[in-house]
Design goal:
- By secondary structure, this protein is of the alpha/beta class.
- Helix content is about 55%, strand content about 15%.
- It has an 8-stranded parallel β-barrel with strand order 1-2-3-4-5-6-7-8, surrounded by 7 helices.
- β5 (about 105-110), α6 and β6 form a beta-alpha-beta unit.
- The longest helix has 22 residues, at about 195-215.
- The chain is globular and about 75 Å long.
- The chain binds erythose-4-phosphate.
């Protein structure tokens, strides 16, 4: 399973990269806005930090403009994956860009039906939003499971990227389902390290060791 960081913060990316477990990055217009740096400039910096797929999202409303914007973003770096929203205009742009060999991550996916359209139109990645589906009182993990079943039934090469993950449990559930990629906010990645018994156990080991050897050397 690939781990992507769901962040445009260079500070968070540097910290996560040091753990050696980050395979790529997802950004979106909100995350870019938080950094206050234009998308082209920020994703170029991200590509210099992380050697893996880096999703950069278009902000144009029409397919024609999305295609122009997608071509521009794809030229920034070989690792850029153009992110396009799952709307009718977006699917037209996806079809055109994928025919040119530009890799597209189809975002804002909230149903298996939408994911089927994305795969048919040539998406490299589809991003179902697990947490936001849960917010509607439905199961985001079930949606991911359905998408994976459909893709397997027809051997679609589109990778399923579980997005909008709100905690370690989401990560475990989508991993059990077999999602190819999960994108994690830095906070969720940090939460995955922690277990009270690890912390308690380490404290005990070090205290036992100190008691035995500090006494001997004193
Ligand atoms: C990733 O590609 C998405 O942009 C992101 O996971 C959305 O997460 P949110 O629902 O927490 O904003």
């Amino acid at each position: 399973m690939k781990f992507f960081l769901d962040s445009a913060s260079l500070q968070e990316l540097r910290a996560a990269a040091a753990w050696g477990i980050i395979d790529g990055v997802t950004t979106n217009p909100s995350l870019i806005a938080k950094e206050g740096v234009p998308v082209d400039e920020q994703v170029r910096k991200i590509c210099d930090l992380i050697d893996g797929d880096v999703s950069a999202e278009v902000i144009s409303p029409s397919s024609k403009e999305m295609i122009v914007e997608g071509r521009r973003l794809a030229k920034i770096h070989k690792n850029i994956v153009v992110k396009i929203p799952l709307i009718a205009e977006g699917v037209k742009a996806l079809h055109a860009l994928s025919k040119e060999g530009i890799r597209v991550n189809v975002t804002l996916c909230f149903s298996a039906a939408q994911a089927l359209i994305a795969a048919k139109a040539g998406a490299y990645i589809v991003s179902p939003f697990v947490g936001r589906v849960d917010d509607m009182g439905l199961s985001g993990v079930e949606m991911v499971r359905d998408i994976l079943t459909i893709y397997r039934n027809y051997a679609f090469p589109t990778q399923v990227l579980a997005a909008s993950c709100r905690g370690p449990l989401h990560v475990i559930e989508v991993a059990k389902a077999g999602a190819h990629i999960v994108t994690l906010p830095y906070k969720v990645l940090e939460q995955m390290f922690h277990h009270p018994l690890t912390e308690k156990g380490l404290e005990q080991f070090l205290s036992d060791h100190r008691k035995a050897f500090d006494l001997v050397s004193a």
